[in-house]
Amino acid sequence: MVRDMPVRSVLDGLYKMSGMAAAVALVAILGLVITQMVARWSGQIFPGGAQYAGYAMAATSFLAMAYTFNHNAHIRVGLFVTKSGRYRRAMELWCYTLASMSAVFLAWYAVKATMLSARINDISQGQDATPLWMPQVFMAVGAVIFAIAVVDNLVRIVLTDFQGVGAAESSMDWSQVLFHSKASRAILVGAILLVVYAAMQAMTGFDRDAVALKIGIFLFVMFFLLGSGIWVGLALLGVAYIGMIGFTSRNPGNAMIITVWTSSSSWTLTALPLFIWMGEILYRTRLSEDMFKGLAPWLSRIPGGLLHTNVVGCTVFAAVSGSSAATLTTVGKMSIPELQKRGYPEYMTIGTLAGAATLGLMIPPSLTLIVYGVTVKESITKLFMAGVIPGLVLAGMFMLYIVAWYFLRPGQRPKPEPHVGFIAALKNSTLLIPVIALVVVVIGSMYGGYATPTEAAAFGVVGALVLAALQGSLSLHTFTQSLLGATRTSAMIALILMGAAFLSLSMGFTGLPRALAEWIAEFNLSPIALIAALTVFYIIIGMFLDGISAVVLTMAIIEPMIRAAGIDLIWFGIFIVVVVEMAQITPPIGFNLFVLQSMTKHDITYIAKTALPMFGIMVLMVVVLVAFPELATWLPDRLLAQ
């Protein structure tokens, strides 16, 4: 064991260094975006600026993967793993073995692609004319370190009592589970490898025209891998690989790495880590705490009192975050203790917070809308504009629910808040100025045509840093932690997007999306009937997948159907966000429910019950959107026309 310590230290140091390098790449994205923006404003040309930022985006994504994995920040559907009891170690060995295969597969072809680019002197097609092997080195290095991290954890589970990267979240005593000896664990890993090899051999060479068979295989493999606890991004790579070997003759590895590189080095995608970073800065400074103090004197006068701070706080923070989890964590940490102290019913505190935090997905800047826009190739600025009015309407519906509770349950009202005079309330409101100013700068720069979404994200990061510095809550520790937090979240989303891009390519080669769209078209569903069917569909898959996974996983199939039905893709983006918001608060895999569980220590079933009325309000919001589609389309049409 003593001899193993230097190896452990070297590996952990490698993963940490990789994460720090990814953080440096994220800072480079910010610098490149700002340089590009300043050059454009001054009438100059920054040749290749967008391409360089895309390369830095790829470097951030790949270099942070191992660091993110070691911090248990990659998403997995671990329900069956955590409920497997005596079979827990066997389930983890299954997950880590398949994850290792996917990660090694990715690393092998990343290295091959980089070496090929260097050998043939492949040049970027953009203005920069960069030899592609140079940025692809970061892809290869990051993928190799990621593969080392996954295999390292598999070896530790086989040879020690290590419980995996999620060990800190598990209180299970592994002395009660099966496979005590190292030899039995090694034999199990060998058996898993043989089973996977046999399954891959059985999956090759199917009839390309067998549509029903394709659907059956894709769905079975997808839900089997996701349901058994494989990390979402790696599971998607596995599903796509099965589709490629089963229904095409093209080399799956070469097709995968070209797709993965293209999707990860996108200029449009650079807005994602910057908005995440902005939210991390606000979360780790006193800006969010000041926001509560500024809102409280005014909202205490409305029926329902300070419960409205959950909704209004989430609405305001959503306008500078874009992440449901960041919104929930930030507002929850400031509001839950305050509302408990004042005697508000806990089920109302938790329920309204769970629902209102989903506004982070709709009110711009929204990470889900960015991912949706990139996936369907629609204007992200238009999508951001489209989300404003529906987001405010949904926030208003949440507040009406609180007002209804106030009048229907008078016995549960807390003691009235001490009266705060108008002058004192105005004085407290000055604490809102920094956050409101940041909202105006970020959103106004986009809507005014001064900045693209990526440039607006850069505005947000710089603005958040300046405000935190002026407030005195920005330290080197805060800066570093916000940066590393942003790299972890960015890498998690990037891995899912890579897997989804490869899955979309695989499905395209098999002809499944076209065949499925033709099959559904035979039913001659009206647009409203199609939307009703998709609502049910997304509610069901949302019970098992996080929002971003649900979007990228289904768009390859859904997009052709929507276009064929003549449904506006901007409107559909807002519809998608509403139904994905529902997925955040529906068990068993409601992401917001898990975040609240960790914050409140309540059972997940209790938290799900408190969020049920908010789920019903979101269903009503879908009906409102269908009845009044102008809620989503009026603002982007109006502003762009001007």
From TrEMBL:
Organism lineage: Bacteria, Pseudomonadati, Pseudomonadota, Alphaproteobacteria, Rhodobacterales
Pfam families to which the protein is assigned, alphabetical = DctM, DctQ
Name the domain of life.
Bacteria
Its name, as the record gives it, is TRAP transporter large permease subunit
Membrane-spanning ranges: 20-39, 51-69, 90-111, 131-151, 186-203, 215-243, 255-278, 307-332, 344-363, 383-408, 429-450, 456-479, 491-509, 529-557, 569-586, 606-628
Source organism (scientific name): Meridianimarinicoccus aquatilis
Its placement in the membrane is given as:
Multi-pass membrane protein
Q: Does the keyword Lipid biosynthesis apply?
A: no
> Tell me, what does this protein do in biology?
Part of the tripartite ATP-independent periplasmic (TRAP) transport system.
Which keywords appear in this protein's UniProt record, sorted alphabetically? Answer: Cell inner membrane, Cell membrane, Membrane, Transmembrane, Transmembrane helix, Transport
GO MF annotation, one: transmembrane transporter activity
Q: Would you tell me the Gene Ontology cellular component terms?
A: plasma membrane
Q: Subcellular location, in the record's words?
A: Cell inner membrane
State if Membrane is listed as a keyword: yes
Which parts of the sequence belong to the TRAP C4-dicarboxylate transport system permease DctM subunit domain?
220-631
Span of domain Tripartite ATP-independent periplasmic transporters DctQ component: 29-158
